[in-house]
Structures are given as C-alpha cells and as structure tokens.
Amino acid sequence: MAWIALFVAGLFEIGWAVGLKFTEGFTRPLPTLMTIVAMIVSFALLGVALRTLPLGTAYAIWTGIGTAGTVVLGILLFGESADALRLACTALILTGIVGLKLITP
After folding, report:
1. Angle of CA points 91, 95, 96, to nearest 5°
2. Domain of 11?
3. Three-state SS for 50?
4. Can you tell me the distance from the alpha carbon of 89 to that of 50, in angstroms, rounded to the nearest whole number?
5. Fewest beta carbons within 10 Å, which of 50, 52, 74, 75?
6. In whole angstroms, what separates CA 8 from the centre of its chain?
7. Would you say 64 and 11 are in contact if contact means Cβ atoms under 8 Å apart?
8. Going by C-beta distance under 8 Å and a sequence separation of 6 or more, which residues neighbour residue 60?
9. Angstrom distance (rounded) from CA 35 to CA 41
C-alpha cells in the first residue's frame, strides 16, 4: 500500500509542478486552487508512504517521479526541448527510481 501511495503522490507532484505554470504567478484562481489541492494531496500521500518506507528512498522516488513526469509534460504541453541528452538524463532518473524500488523491501 505504501508503494501505491508513493506512486500516486508522485503523480500529484507532477500535477502541482505543471499547475504552477498555469497559475501565472498565482493570478488565476482556479488553477491556483487546483495546484494547492494537488500539493496537499501529494504531501499527504508522501506522509502515508513514509510510515513504512525509508525516508531517503521514498523522497528520491517521489521527486524522481515528479521530475521525470514534469519533463515529459513540459515537452508535450509547452514545447520544451526533447533533445537526446535531455531524454537520456530523464531516463537516468527513471532508472534510479526503478533501482531504488528493486532494492527496497
């Protein structure tokens, strides 16, 4: 259950990171509200996962999911660079996430 909570927390981290772009400096009420809700849910689920998972592992995976997902959505939604080096670095982050999951009970 902790791993599922951590994965969903990472998805909500992607949501609030991308949501920040849509708030336009917190000047748009609905995107701002949605971003704040995503932050709260993300942190709450991270807290649930931390009941049983090691702190370093959980935090690294949470931020890794958020980072990789935000890179992908930046490319898809905002036309950010998708050059090979950037994609390779993102693949390294994902490899680290998988590695941490595999070595953590």
Report:
1. 120
2. 2-103
3. coil
4. 27
5. 52
6. 9
7. no
8. 96, 97, 100
9. 10
pLDDT digits (tens, 9 = 90+) for 72-105: 999 999 999 999 999 999 999 999 999 999 999 7
Packing angle of the helix pair 29-49, 2-23 (nearest 10 deg): 160
pLDDT band at 52 (very low <50, low <70, confident <90, very high): very high
Q: How does DSSP assign 8-39, residue by residue?
A: HHHHHHHHHHHHHHHHTTTTSHHHHHHHHHHH
Q: Quick check: 3 pLDDT over 90?
A: yes
| pTM, to two decimals | 0.90
Give, in order, the Cα–Cα distances in Å from 103 to each of 37, 53, 57, 100. 32, 12, 10, 5
Work out the burial of residue 2: count CB atoms within 10 Å of its CB; fewer than 13 is exposed, 13-18 middle, 19 or more buried. middle
